[in-house]
């Protein structure tokens, strides 16, 4: 919580020694709006949604999650209007951003190409699980990464999220990073890049 899209881009660039760029894929780093954040005693913070507390065992702040899903849907629709098909769009993020992406994809946009969530989790009674209980049809693949030394979002919360989503029919993988705290690592971003290219291969023009 508290970083911006530009901050995330810079962080990844420092880890890779270059931008996370692809010849055939546009990367967008949106920034969350500033809102009062309860875990920080109501201080304004750039967060995707509010939380009653940083715990997987409390209700979700549904109101702020819903409003953000609508805002991010506009972003997706802008890309579609510019000619990108829905099955060529991936959504994902770090920490809260990954939680946001799971809400967005599994509740409202099940026709995206995939979802990635780095050091993220869903609350035990998440609206995502409730939506998936009524699931019909294919679901986008989830690429999840988590460090075992994460002191903010325990690894067990990420693992539990992964198991729960799998049990509800999500094709999901979980990549474990020993000794990694609540941060990104170069190896992790390299793995993510490979997964992105696998999900969105260069489209070869069909010859008649």
Molecular structure report:
- This protein has 208 residues and is an alpha/beta fold.
- It has a domain at 56-199: Alpha/Beta hydrolase fold, catalytic domain (Rossmann fold).
- 38% of the residues lie in helices and 15% in strands.
- It is built from six helices and six strands.
- It has helices at residues 5-16, 62-81, 96-108, 127-133, 155-167, 186-199, and strands at residues 34-37, 43-46, 90-94, 114-118, 141-147, 172-177.
- The strands form two sheets. A four-stranded parallel sheet has the order 3-4-5-6, with helices on both faces.
- Strand 1 (34-37) and strand 2 (43-46) form a beta hairpin.
- Helix 2 (62-81) packs across helix 3 (96-108) and helix 3 runs parallel beside helix 4.
- The model has no long low-confidence stretch (mean pLDDT 94).
Please sum up the structure shown.
With 208 residues, this protein is an alpha/beta fold.
Distance between the termini: 50 Å
CATH topology of one domain: Rossmann fold
Describe the strand arrangement of the main beta sheet, using strand numbers: 3-4-5-6
Question: What structural category arises from helix and sheet content?
Answer: alpha/beta
Fraction of residues in helices? Answer: 25-40%
In terms of DSSP E residues, the strand content is: 5-15%
Helix segment tally: 6
Q: How many distinct beta strands? A: 6
Q: For the CA atoms, what is the radius of gyration?
A: 17 Å
Instruction: Give the topology string: H per helix, E per strand.
Output: HEEHEHEHEHEH
Largest sheet: 4 strands, parallel
Contiguous low-pLDDT stretches (5 residues minimum) are none
Find the CATH superfamily of one domain: Alpha/Beta hydrolase fold, catalytic domain
Gross morphology: globular
Annotated CATH architecture of one domain: 3-Layer(aba) Sandwich
CATH class of one domain: Alpha Beta
Global mean pLDDT: 94
């Amino acid at each position: 919580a508290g970083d911006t899209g530009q901050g995330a881009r810079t962080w990844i660039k420092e880890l890779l020694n270059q931008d996370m760029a692809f010849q055939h894929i546009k990367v967008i780093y949106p920034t969350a709006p500033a809102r009062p954040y309860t875990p920080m005693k109501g201080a304004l913070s750039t967060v995707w949604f509010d939380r009653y507390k940083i715990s997987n065992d409390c209700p979700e702040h549904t109101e702020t999650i819903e409003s953000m899903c609508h805002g991010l849907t506009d972003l997706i629709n802008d890309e579609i209007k510019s000619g990108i098909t829905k099955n060529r769009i991936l959504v994902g993020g770090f920490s809260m951003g990954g939680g946001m992406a799971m809400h967005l994809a599994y509740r409202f946009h099940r026709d995206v190409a995939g979802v990635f969530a780095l050091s993220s989790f869903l609350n035990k009674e998440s609206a995502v699980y409730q939506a998936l209980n009524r699931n019909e049809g294919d679901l986008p693949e989830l690429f999840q990464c988590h460090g075992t030394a994460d002191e903010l979002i325990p690894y067990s919360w990420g693992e539990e999220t992964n198991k729960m989503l799998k049990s509800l029919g999500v094709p999901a993988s979980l990549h474990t990073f020993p000794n990694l705290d609540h941060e990104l690592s170069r190896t992790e971003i390299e793995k993510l890049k490979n997964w992105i290219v696998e999900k969105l291969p260069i489209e070869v023009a069909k010859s008649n």
